Amino acid sequence: MKKFVVFCLSAALISNLTISGNAYLKPSEMSIDEKLGQMMCLEFRYWDSEDSKSKSAATKEKSSLKPVKEINSEIKNIISKYHIGNVILFSQNFENKNQTKKLVSDLQTSATDSGHPPLIIAVDQEGGKVERFSFGRNRLKNNGEIKTSSEAFRKGQKIAEELRELGINCNFAPVVDINSNPKNPVINVRSFGSNPKVVAEFGKSFLDGLHSKNIIGTAKHFPGHGDTEVDSHLKLPKVNKSLEDLKRIELRPFKELVDSGIDMVMTAHISLPKIESKTVVSKKDGKQIFLPATLSNKVLKDILRKQIGFSGVIITDAMNMKAISENFGEEEAVKRAIAAGVDIICMPVEIYSKHDVYKLDNLFKYLKNAISHGEISESDINSSIGRIMELKEKYFQNINKES
Q1: Residue 22 in contact with residue 397, Cβ under 8 Å?
Q2: 317-373 pLDDT per residue, tens
């Protein structure tokens, strides 16, 4: 891949990154491995300090693994060798501001020094119940406690200021699920409420706050996780609503944010049998299950792309959540997601030591075989890469214009 020229003005932080010239390659200029790497969003949350050769670190208890506070040579090599385009950080990665700035800077350097585009470095910093860091300040309000659109804007702007200082360029927020089911165990106070109009208004204001500091925002969880009684981290929820039902409630905030310029939408690991009637055999117990939204062409291409008109980047929710991981193998789930229209796969495999890296080799081989056999359209891959590169160019070339 041709070398990407970057000028780093503050300890190589992406918050001060500018790109010289047309630094982003077109799909036709990239190998298939480069394309697949740009479609992966990896976590580097833990690392096996014992470097055990007896078994994969991913099979160990996470309590025995060391949180990743600084980059090591193995992580640097993974980003370089596999052309990784995106990284997600968790609370385990945060200790203090200086440590985080260096971690983010070193992650970026691992990509750009290898001739790759800058990384999208993301975090779930919703504020309130879901905050990956606070560094001693009081926890922000939950979305459910927000009373006005101006308050939602200030919250989004506050988070954006903190992310930008650290060099993080993407927030997996706002949550625009409608909290329509009081028994919902996973959304609840993370939602701006039960009124679709309010959720849309506050979600847009939060997004405007992120955009005021040039942070990429992400509307989640499409097509709506608010009317479930099951946590998709634990099982596959089912939402028995028709498309007309969704349009009246769940889809309204997503439509509002798409019309307002949201750049990224995250999928929900939920089944919608009245919309996606296709069933598959679960790896867990051999029973038939309805295809989840994350893996559904009807939900992503037909509803989100065609009917709502979203032309930005679609990213999955974490693929290690049990709604997906218990029912599909890692490789099969990723293949189905890409075939359904996903652009970026969040946490496709768990890598906690250099002995887990074989999973990426196997995944890339599996996906390339699926492409060669027509199970994944190469034109869809190229479209995804076009959207990802357009997003990176938009934010990273403009990052200094308001500085």
Answers
A1: no
A2: 999 998 999 999 999 999 999 999 999 999 999 999 999 999 999 999 999 999 999
**Structure pTM?**
0.91
User: Domains (ranges, CATH) in the chain?
Assistant: 6-397 (3.20.20.300)
Q: How far apart, in Å, are the Cα atoms of 144 and each of 177, 328, 358?
A: 11, 34, 43
**Token representation of residue 168:** 């993080």
* Tokens linked to 18: 């500018």
Q: Which residues are catalytic?
A: 233, 317
C-alpha angle 132-133-134 in degrees, rounded to nearest 5: 140
Task: Return the SS3 of 38.
Answer: helix
Separation between Cα atoms, residue 399 and residue 376, nearest integer Å: 34
Helices (H), 212-355: 243-248, 251-259, 297, 322-325, 330-340
Residues in the chain: 403
Q: Which two tokens stand for residue 33?
A: 């491995």
